[in-house]
Design brief:
- The chain has 390 residues and is an alpha+beta fold.
- Helices cover 43% and strands 18% of the residues.
- The chain is built from 10 helices and 15 strands.
- The strands form 3 sheets. Strands 9-8-7-10-11-14-15 form a 7-stranded mixed sheet. It has a 6-stranded antiparallel sheet with strand order 2-5-6-1-4-3.
- The longest helix is centred in the middle third of the chain and has 35 residues.
Length: 390
């Protein structure tokens, strides 16, 4: 399943209906959560999504007549999302569901039937809404669902389809990638990807807007306007960071056959208060997530080195372990090896990726020394279980 997301070009009347739809979905989610908590306290059991939908349909015409102004999919899909949230909670994947607040934005709503053209999308009870990007959403494919969401005053639609991706044959070189703060990533072939440092560059403006927001009276129109300005600068920071990561990960997965990366413990790295903000701004976890799913599309493999693999301390020429201070940018070894510490780490990760390729060619199995291999059987299936070799 693949999602296509683009921005809506809605008018004022449509934006009002979008807000009503998102508000109805948020209300239905909170109503269902309150009902489930109340029933659990009384009986020790929780209601199902189907039971909540039947109960809401029976009372909405008398108690919540304003729900009839929007599509019936808004409350139905919200209750289905609530059921999924509880399933994830019982499986230990996520925490207990919490109530949604409009202070965090208008939210989103989902509908299951729609029609898409080159420049428009049909939303139930709202009509045809123009798209800012033409010929991007799939027209000739069956649409499973569509989700409309709001972010910093802008409305987006994400269309989910099921399609078969033809994975190309990737005969690119084997490389290692070392993630850093400056630059964002260093490849073993000496390629570097610059870190835009989106938060640092916009920090002064963000601070000024947040100070302005704190001075506004709660509940006033001026406070709402100031909150929108803060949301826009946060959205801009996220877009700049995402643009740099998408360009880097797409280039790597398209042109490299095997990519060696580190298994970084980001939660431990951000405990260093001097580097926590810069590490969070670089978003290492998102970089690796994009590498993993794009590798399935473009026919490359991701080899994740063991978390305790000394990629930075180990000399890529002789293999000796040297202690390198955190602020030292040049790696030096007694064997005469002198290079950037990031390039040295990338070449050590390349060696791990090469050991995986050699083992694969010799035995025909997915095995790697000091590495974890993450690869799916096909792009339409879930990834295999992680295999670890000592």
């Amino acid at each position: 399943m693949k999602a296509y997301k683009t921005e809506l070009d809605s008018n004022n009347v449509q934006r009002t209906l979008l807000l009503k739809s998102a508000g109805t979905a948020r209300f239905a989610y909170n109503w269902g959560l309150a009902k489930m908590q109340e029933q659990f306290e009384q009986t020790g059991k929780s209601s199902t999504c189907l039971a909540l939908r039947r109960e809401l349909n029976g009372i909405k015409r008398t108690e919540f007549p304003w729900m009839l102004e929007v599509s019936k999919c808004c409350p139905q899909e919200a209750l289905r999302d609530l059921e999924v949230a509880y399933q994830r909670f019982f499986k230990g994947v996520s925490g207990h569901p919490t109530f949604k607040s409009k202070k965090n934005g208008a939210g989103s709503f989902t509908f299951s039937y729609t029609k898409v053209s080159s420049d428009r999308i049909q939303i139930p009870r709202i009509g045809d809404v123009r798209l800012k990007e033409r010929n991007y959403l799939p027209i000739d494919q069956h649409i499973l669902s569509a989700t409309v969401s709001e972010k910093a005053g802008r409305w987006f639609v994400s269309v989910l389809v099921r399609e078969e991706i033809k994975v190309p044959e990737n005969n690119g070189p084997v490389v290692g990638v070392d993630l850093n703060i400056a630059p964002l990533a260093v490849v073993s072939d000496k390629t570097e990807f610059a870190n835009p440092k989106a938060l640092r560059r916009n920090e002064r403006k963000l601070k000024r807007l947040q100070m302005s927001l704190s001075r506004k009276r709660k509940g006033s129109s001026n406070r709402n306007k100031a909150r929108q300005r803060v949301a826009k600068i946060h959205n801009r920071i996220a877009d700049i960071r995402g643009d740099a990561q998408h360009k880097a990960t797409t280039m790597l997965t398209k042109t490299k056959s095997v990519i060696g990366v580190e298994d970084l413990a980001v939660k431990n790295l951000v405990r260093n208060h001097k580097l926590a903000k810069a590490i969070s701004d670089a978003s290492f976890g998102e970089f690796r997530r994009q590498l993993e799913y794009k590798a399935k599309w473009y026919g490359s493999r991701i080899v994740v080195a063991d978390r305790w693999f000394p990629s930075t301390k180990k000399c890529c020429e002789c293999g000796k372990i040297n202690e390198i201070p955190l602020g030292q940018e040049i790696y030096t070894c007694d064997c005469g090896n002198t290079m950037s510490r990031h390039l040295n780490a990338a070449r050590n990760l390349e060696a791990v990726a090469l050991s995986f390729r050699e083992t694969l060619n010799a035995c025909g199995e997915l095995a790697a020394t000091e590495a974890t291999v993450m690869q799916a059987d096909s792009v339409n299936q879930e990834p295999n279980a992680i295999r670890e070799m000592s």
